[in-house]
Design goal:
With 398 residues, the chain is mostly beta strands. The chain has a single domain, classed as TolB, C-terminal domain (Neuraminidase, 6 Propeller). The protein is built from two helices and 28 strands. The strands form seven sheets. The protein has a five-stranded antiparallel beta sheet, with no helix packed on it. Strands 21, 22, 23, 24 and 25 form a five-stranded antiparallel beta sheet that branches. Strands 4-28-27-26 form a four-stranded antiparallel beta sheet, with no helix packed on it. The longest helix is centred in the N-terminal third of the chain and has 11 residues. InterPro entries: 6-blade_b-propeller_TolB-like (IPR011042), Glc/Sorbosone_DH (IPR012938), Quinoprot_gluc/sorb_DH_b-prop (IPR011041). This is Oxidoreductase. Keywords: Signal.
């Protein structure tokens, strides 16, 4: 029977076929507010292995990155961007697609020249507070279908649409009509989540916020304060931990960072409130504690973060994996964090780079090998823009 999303509750939608379920199960087996809330006491960062997740045996054979790494800013790719939020590299050197939270537009940036071409405006975006046009991702079949997925705040909810990208049309008219893939994610002036990414299993992962209503995070029937896992068509993905539900993990406050390592393990960053921001290793069906726990907890029913920071030091948005480490962009912290990994634990203390040099940092994306794309976020209403803001930087890391 049909399954629809009504408000913040989940009700039934049609099931996927058994063949698709079996295939995805095999694949899956491998696999706060921007200011960080009201600043609490200065509580320095610490690294905390999770007691709730056992490390796979293959981790013993993985090479552990050095405790200390390096970051080099190779160049400024583009300047003059307004409230950039999502960033999606087009395969084959086809440019970088950037969403503008406040303008509701998607722009293509030539990664060599920095030239900008507006694809068009996404209809229905209602930008206010932390809401607007947020994360974007390319279809896993982008080479053949040319589909762009976008997460945005509408007048009634947060939702995901997909649109055809036709580069042969005139600038400003290159986005096709949006097809709504998923809707009903709670919206608020704060905590709208917004990061979307296709995983190694070709499923769509979605980081949501609790929209300022803390109780939604522990309610498994709500879409708020969750990581969702969907098929590209917006169905609950086969193999999800709760029957007929898109919920993959819960007990989150505001997830804006999603990334996988080379072993197809999922990591997520989320904003804390007064004390701790978190980097988590995500295990299907686990409870990450909010609002009962912020940071490390002694209660075994909550999955502890692998690293945590005082909210003044991080307020994390995007994350990426490169060179054996997670790289995490900090908004209020105005720095890029390196968290070296061994399996699903931090192998050394997190290390900070670019501290205050470029202001607020929003999104970090792998550019292949030891390179990253990094966007600043100084025109979002909470930063102090300098001449040239906002910008995209190219980094070399180790």
């Amino acid at each position: 029977m049909d399954r629809r999303v009504e408000g913040t509750k989940i009700v039934r939608r049609r099931a996927v076929t058994a063949v698709l379920a079996a295939s995805a199960l095999l694949l899956a087996a491998g696999c706060s507010s921007d200011s960080g809330g009201t600043p609490g006491p200065a509580a320095g960062r610490s690294s905390n292995p999770s007691a709730a997740q056992s490390a796979p045996s293959r981790e013993a054979a993985e090479e552990t990155p050095p405790a200390k790494g390096t970051v080099k800013v190779v160049r400024t790719v583009a300047e003059g961007l307004n409230s950039p939020w999502g960033l999606a590299p087009v395969p084959g050197g086809g440019g970088l697609l950037v969403s503008s939270r406040d303008e509701g537009t998607i722009t293509r940036v030539d990664e060599k020249s920095g030239a900008k071409t507006e694809l068009g405006e996404v209809p229905g975006v209602s930008a206010a507070g932390e809401g607007g046009l947020l994360g974007i991702a390319l279809s896993p079949d982008y080479a053949s279908d040319r589909m762009i997925y976008a997460y945005f705040t509408s007048a009634s909810d947060n939702r995901i649409v997909r649109m055809l990208y036709d580069a042969d049309k005139p600038a400003g008219e290159q986005l096709g009509a949006p097809d709504t893939v998923f809707k009903g994610i709670p919206k608020g002036f704060i905590h709208n989540g917004g990061r979307i990414a296709f995983g190694p299993d070709r499923m769509l992962y979605v980081g949501t916020g609790e929209s300022g209503d803390k109780g939604l995070s522990q309610d498994k029937e709500s879409l708020g304060g969750k990581i969702l896992r969907l098929t590209p068509e917006g169905e609950p993905a086969p193999g999800n931990p709760f029957p007929d539900s898109p919920v993959y993990s819960y007990g989150h406050r505001n997830v804006q960072g999603l990334a996988w390592d080379t072993e197809q393990r999922l990591f997520a960053a989320e904003f804390g409130q007064d004390t701790w921001d978190e980097l988590n290793a995500i295990k299907p069906g686990d409870n990450y504690g909010w609002p009962e726990a912020e940071g490390t907890s002694d209660d075994a029913k909550y999955h502890n973060p692998l690293a945590q920071w005082g909210t003044d030091e991080a307020s994390p948005s995007g994350i990426a994996h490169a060179e054996g480490s997670i790289w995490m962009a900090g908004l209020k912290g105005k720095r890029l964090w390196r968290i070296p990994l061994k399996g699903t634990e931090a192998s050394a203390d997190p290390q900070a780079f670019l501290d205050g040099e470029y202001g607020r940092l929003r999104t970090v994306v792998s550019a292949g090998g030891n390179k990253l794309w990094l966007t600043t976020s100084n025109t979002d209403g909470r930063g102090t823009p300098k001449e040239g803001d906002d910008r995209i930087l190219e980094l070399e890391v180790s």
